[in-house]
């Protein structure tokens, strides 16, 4: 029998499966094995993956911030596809949509416009791309409109389109003209007569008006607190083991993982990713084009900070002073920094001291220095007006 670190229920060994504590979509597969665990029950692995991890990564703001740390200036092996940017759901309901369908609007790497018609989902309506499980099997269609730049920067377009909506049953239809490409090679096909009328409507709606395309964004509250609590519990368990399930403070983290909208906030000193950002902290712990997760001691408590690039961060106390002995503290002496480059599918872990020494130039970290040499990490532009708060 084993105790699951998230639901704390005791279950037979057969009910446990391998868990990437840092979700795979944020680079969890690339981090060292010591940040993975076998102590998560399958129910939590499935449900928290869908309702906590995915609610973070598929939140409209987060998904666009994650996009902003994706280099778009250099297309190379290993990160050929530039993800599409989700602008939102068309405000006006197209006359050809079924009652349970919506049209989600995306931008390609050269400002190509993509309209994806998919079923709506009442339960997970706030997810960019809808419920990842149910929409995966739904037969959907998407219209791809090229831009003036599409042909001159065809590489970016080709790779992005090839990978857009991968793993889903999306019928990809070319709206308009594109010369010089075998469109079937990138998974596109020409429209039939019926689809041409839909294209006409979209074309008229989106491009023949002077204003921007009107879109709506959907958003849940508190999803990031649940995500932070889960990540803090998972990583703390990887470092300190079972004791993180037993201390009085661990109750607060537990509440955070299972937090409902009407419940009081747990006493975990969490700072939401939507809170006013502390520029000092961002300068210190953020890193361009990377997700950085740090552990450090602040007044005898251990604080975890999650940074997306150099613009956004969230933090939480993951272990309090009563939980840890001096021996425990020594396990992360010098702090911890996990630096994840999604676009390279690479994660580098080091002590926080090494990370800070690299950042201030005292002692360059060889792997970070190599990446800085190879890529332009300076430009970090949010695709739209992402400074807006929900
Ligand atoms: Zn569980």
Key attributes of the depicted protein:
binds zinc ion; five-stranded antiparallel sheet; 2 domains; disordered C terminus; 11 helices; alpha+beta; seven-stranded mixed sheet; about 400 residues
Secondary structure blueprint with pairings:
Layout: E1 2-3, E2 10-11, E3 16-20, E4 36-41, H1 42-57, H2 60-68, E5 85-90, E6 101-107, E7 113-119, H3 134-137, E8 140-145, H4 154-163, E9 170-175, E10 188-189, H5 193-207, E11 215-216, H6 223-240, H7 248-257, H8 279-285, E12 291-298, E13 301-308, E14 312-319, H9 326-331, E15 336-341, E16 346-350, H10 352-359, H11 366-374
Parallel strand pairs: 8-9, 9-10
Antiparallel strand pairs: 1-2, 3-4, 5-6, 5-11, 6-7, 7-8, 12-13, 12-15, 13-14, 15-16
Helix pairs in contact: 1-6, 6-7
Bound molecules: zinc ion.
What's this model, at a glance?
The chain is α+β, with helices and mostly antiparallel strands and 390 residues long.
